[in-house]
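for the writeup, i need someone to sanity check this before i put it in the appendix. the sequnce is what the collaborator sent (i think, or maybe the updated version? ugh). structure was predicted straight from it, no edits. if anything looks off just tell me and ill rerun, i have time this weekend
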Amino acid sequence: MRPDPGQSATIVSIQVGVPTRLEDERGRWETSFVREPSPERRRLFFTHLEGNVQADTANHGKPGQAVLVYAAAHHPAWREELGRPEIGPGGFGENFTVDGLSEATVCIGDTFTVGDARIQVTGPRYPCTKIGRRWGTPTLTSRVAETGRIGWYCRVVREGSIEPGLPMDLVDRPHPEVTVALINDFGHGRNRDVAAATRVAECPLLEEWWQRLVVVRAKGGNW
């Protein structure tokens, strides 16, 4: 069931990370994907969360990707499926770990107040290879896409101060028919309804990259 304006979720944890050099069987690599919970009150800027620094600025860090949000309910499933009891908040690179929201209930353009800040959903996170590399499980990236436990990005429409435990109050829902889960299904070729994909692509608040991808994949094309 999708939340209606006036309902709220809760930020259970906030994470930040900075570019860090890691090494695995593939060699050395740099990432800010490893994000650790922080209890501090932080400023949420239009471009980023205070203390968070992107390593891959070519693919991340755009205004529509100022904050990555992930459902807290996903972590227990991953711990069980992967046999990794250490997976918790920040385990999938998210800045906000939230209770009460999921890809099935969040829609493009949903606008939430968080403290004195305001954020707006721009689109799903397209799972990248860093997810699998972070946990030493090459198949994990595809598994994230298959399960739909992908997370979603938000832009900041009003700067402000935030901290763990704050409610996320839904104040506007302009596109209730365009869920993050629906976009993900189109983006990974599980929904081939071209007419529906075309309507979704017309959503002005959806990131342009996704607007193009949903139609291409609905037609059976590759990106």
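The chain has six helices and twelve strands. The domain at 8-174 is CATH 2.40.33.20 (M1 Pyruvate Kinase; Domain 3).
thx in advance!!
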